[in-house]
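Collaborator request, handled under Task 6.
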Amino acid sequence: MLIEKTKKKSKKSVTFENPAEDGTFGDMGPFFGFSTFNGREITGSNNFRDISFRQFPIELQKEVGYRSFYGADQVEGALFGLTTSEALRPLDLKKARFQADLRGIYSSYADRSGQSPGRRLSASYVDQFDTGIGRIGFSAGVMLNDSFLPKDFYKGTTAVKPCNSIGPTASGNCTYDPNSTNALYFPTGSHTFRQQRSDEEQRAYFATIQWQPNEKWDIMIDGERSSRIQSRYRSEFALTEGFRSLTPLEIAPSGAPLRFSGETKLESLGFARTRDEKYTGYGINVRFRPTERLEIRTDLSYSRTERSQTDISASASTNDLVGPGGRIGYTLDLSHGGVPYIEFATPIDLSDHSLFTASAAARRGRDTRRDAIKAWRTDVIYELGGLLETIRLGARYSEHKRHGQLLTYQSDGIPEANVQAGNASCRRGPITTDFLADSGTNINSWAVFDPACLYTAFTGNTDYDIPLARKSGGEQDVSEKILAGYIMGNFKGELADLPVHGNIGLRVTQTRRTTRVARYTGSPDPIIDRSGSLVDFLPSANVVVEAGRGLEIEGSVYRTLLRSAIDGFNLRRVIAGPSGTIERQDPVKAWNMDLSLRYSPAPDTAISLDAYYKFLSSSAWPGDLIMPGGPVLNPALRADSLKKSYIRGAAVSLRQTFSMLPAPLDGLALEASYSFTDSNFRFNDPSATDPANPLYLFVPPSGVPGLSKHAVNLSGSWEKGNFGIGATYEYRSGFLRPTGLTANRVLGPTNYLNAYVSYRIDDHMQLRLAALNLTNEHEVLYRPVADAAAQTSYFGQTFSLSLKLRY
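Structure tokens returned to the collaborator:
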């Protein structure tokens, strides 16, 4: 994502150059992040509390920023600061304005799937009026976005276990014997190649009315509506028996099997998904200033996200034409990259549809979620003058409710006639051409079936709501009520003849949560947990010293808490097996110490140094919740390392413009930043494919989810007259990207190069050509050890051409 960052005091502002993408700040990921819109917590359908900012038209946002210091007046919920978005207040603009952005988007990977170029249209209008009842301003915007997410995948299943056997075993699958002297290795249960076509249609609308009847009153009403319809169509080819008859031929020192032989069935699967997600939000904000010193602010808001998702899939495995039991021998080589090269023991035409008529199956899944928040807050600001410049008092109350239901149906005993009919009538060509052409693999095509056709042929119906034979899944209802109050004083004065300002405050929160969980298999009775009341005290202090000659020093000490996912009790929630088990844990809390030095010796130069230290703590609730018949929790699930964990880091950044140089070099600007992060936080792998040998006993734990140890950002631009050109380079070292709460995966280092060229036609129109991922970077996830590629995805380069209008 091409972004332009400016830093002033403890806030980073961001202007999005690609509004189709969400913003990220530094190394902060959703695990430790928290976001607000207009100072309000916003609903979402994911499992975290961050916001997808792209659901709001960027043209009507005053700013999107990141506050590293967490003050007492800010909504609590994050350890790594607060990502904020503020709607434009129409009367602040003081003039009418019309904006539009017409954009076409091209991706070679989408083109290979037969997808048309993407398009995005956004338009907004802002105006103000002086009337007999005061000043009135309004803004309205619309965004229409048709986009795609092209990717070529290789992936191994998250089912990984330790083995040291060689060749066939009594069970057929590899095993681990602690008394064996054979080398240890970590195979995966299956190997899958995925062709995918993904489309998204988004419609977003936004409106604001602001009314100032006189100098004392300022009233604003805003409303947002967003609709996103996603469709995903994919075909998968898999080696489904990744543990069977394994003979390791090359093992990395970490235990990653780089080359091995085995025996497996092959499978072709067709999959289709439709997701309909709607967001609705509205609120009223009132500011009343009865005197010159006193201001009262009140905000009432409602936010709701609803998701309905339907998945259908149908699959068939190889028959006896490839070998006895439909199995074939193979040698798999992962020693040269993240995608394997596979040689089969006997010649086979993977594109021969007639080979796939065994072990037929059909599945249907329905995932529905409804997330709603009602909130109220009031702030009182009183100007005292003197050293204690202002004092702020406030309170906030919110009710957050989440309902989720996941249903999965699977067929049993599909008649042979249905299988043969589906195989004959549902054949189709590849979803994409030149599949994984950049990876070096020899698996580039296979027998593809239309998923809707095959599902209908196998089940005998076209109604995807008709249940199949076996039902699984569950549902959950969560109610969270939060009451918070704070007091904060802002001071301004001198220290040793140096100007000083800052604030000190205390926020107190009370959290009540009730959760109901039910499974459709195993015990039919739901469990209900009323977590009682949690009270947290969050003090904060911030001091800024203006040392003169362009030097500014800022120090902060504050306490934060991390609210877990709304549908979880804590950091890790697991409903495992036929019944399930849930562990409860307090929200994670942290003491934070931040120090920043900002030096600007000249208008063209800015240098900043930042350092921080966070000491984390948490404690388990008394006892676990165990649904009858459920398994005992794997000890690796407990986040005991949080009791004495720290996260510490430092960053340096430099920004330089060259207006002092002669033309045309005076239009040149450069920016560079580097950050380093270190932590003793440990995230054990929770999986136990082999219950007697859980992975956490064999592999080292991972670090903080979403946090890289090293990050580098470089950008350069040249603007002169009507022309502009620029580029950004982004590097991140590897970081933990877990698969939900069931498996640890580490994303390897990534390097991205983006660029743009712009031309201003006149004062109202600008053309812009942007390119993302010019180096054709791809992503590799490793699990459970280094060198063991668990997922590799290629997505290619993306180009956009836009015309921006502004009047």
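The cover message to the collaborator said: "Helices lie at 90-93, 108-112, 416-425, 451-459. The two ends are 26 Å apart (CA to CA). Please let us know whether this matches your experimental observations."
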